[in-house]
């Protein structure tokens, strides 16, 4: 980010540490997770805050789009993902699976700030072009690649390929006897374990059951690979651990544990502790099995149980309403990780009958949960603007991945949200009392969580790839800092609690306005991503900035309104102007609200201008009021109107007293990129000028134009029909500021204002996670003089 004043620098280090949980007493009560059957109190929260102040944090160093590592000649738009990843023993070569492209990829991460593609290995070179890698791990000089070769669900098969890390040649291969999922290697490198899932067919109907239900033969099991002590792969041996009897009946140990369908266990994920005890999750069956690797004996099985979670958003209705609940729902854990040799943690993603939207810690001795996240995991997403409201009626944040590792003597749990695109970091020094530390943003569908503690790194690999939307799968790298003086770039903005003790829900921040007479207060507004329009108050005196209040916008009859508000201006005389974009040209309008958010005036576009517009219309609004109270509103259209000169977009001047419009032209840049278009995203008055955001529709490494330009503020109206083009000057190129976050460069730079403190603020619209990563970048670009020069 751009340089900040001395005043903000001192506050930054102390306040950013508490960004994730926004340390207010209300936040502590609302997001307090369950401790067994008990709830923690204020003392626990105070202790958490004190520990947060002393902890080291992770900062993102790079985001590498894996399509950059594609084979020569392959179309850049071809699907390619990064799912499960592992790393060489020196921590410098990352290996990841790519099930979409049927290959594994290699990255040089020697410099965490500049990962470098080292090419890929197609499974066609190992056997068949249709083979699919499901997991990968590294042992010494070898890469263990778990491969699904199944012809169908009814005929599952798979193998374990051992590939030389040096020359990428296969040196050994083992038949796994079924369709594999995950693989893990013991700390002493004597054993590898593979979960052979033999997953169910979601379209098959077992006799007397529903479609996609269990049981569906053949049953899954665990395959142990004896690696010996440094033995060559040719001397490795496999041992199967059945999870059913030879005749297909249930094992008593699973049946007695209350496993949902013990004749079809479907093992999902594996993790090994330092005593060579293997934990295996049975996700669809809501259970965990513990296996002693040296003997191959099942030591214990237990059900993951159910949980009731209250205070969450459970309806996909366009509103972030955290008054819903789920009752006695099965946890259905996916990933599992040992915190130590006694306690293990599970990410409770759920399958088709469950999912409790959080994660849990179990005591392996008793099989009982000793801690549960309750609503706190999903509320982290809400607080950080990452809540995917469209998934509320299903499994919410869907915590899928979990990894445990120790950094500088402190054990951490990393929990990934598949749908909300983040990784939550917890201190698990006390396994029964995890302490939230930090939230890390990811690109879409974070699947692989790879701690690299020897180098102080964390790698996050993402499985969602959408070339058409311009959001590509990636590997993100984070590095742990030292001490408390670090200032991670994320989050730039979070929310405080509402009057019910829940974090204020937010997203799709497409506009900004200064608050008259309030030096450290801004306003922003939600757009059509949500069914009800809300004006949000932002406190910029804190770092990160904090959304402190919400005001529901109402129509003229006092009912909640659903405007597609793309611009906001807070009037010195009270109330607001909104620039409302329409689905068609005629739907565009300026809306004046009173201080309570009630609609008091609607100003439509002139019919001739509206007739020339498609679905991109009003995008920003600002206003001036002179000493006599004469108010003039300025609005920006996003794209050209039909009939206007090519590449010229309109800036509108509305005289409130006269009720008349006049128009000026603004000439857009061009990137020359096929399929791209340019447009305006914001307008604001800066002294005797109008400042506008001009941007392309590109994101990630393709992004080219994210700029602030100024034009002189016309001193009078122009005759109707004339369209004088205003000369423009570049004030600030925001692209370097966006790139400096080391994340996925966001497309929609949409909000801009000069606060009462004289600083220039900008924000990106995260589109409520629709075809977007969901990350919101809130920028302090410096003082108005720095950005706009002396005239500002």
From TrEMBL:
Phytase-like domain span: 505-767
Lineage: Bacteria, Bacillati, Actinomycetota, Actinomycetes, Kitasatosporales
Classification via Pfam families: Phytase-like
Spans annotated as Disordered: 27-55, 197-216
InterPro entries: Mesenchyme-surface_protein (IPR052956), Phytase-like_dom (IPR027372), Quino_amine_DH_bsu (IPR011044), WD40/YVTN_repeat-like_dom_sf (IPR015943)
Protein name stated in the entry: Secreted protein
Keywords, ordered alphabetically: Signal
PANTHER family xref list: MESENCHYME-SPECIFIC CELL SURFACE GLYCOPROTEIN (PTHR46928)
Signal peptide location: 1-30
Organism for this UniProt entry: Streptomyces coelicolor (strain ATCC BAA-471 / A3(2) / M145)
Compositional bias ranges of the Low complexity kind: 40-54
SUPFAM superfamilies the record matches: YVTN repeat-like/Quinoprotein amine dehydrogenase (SSF50969)
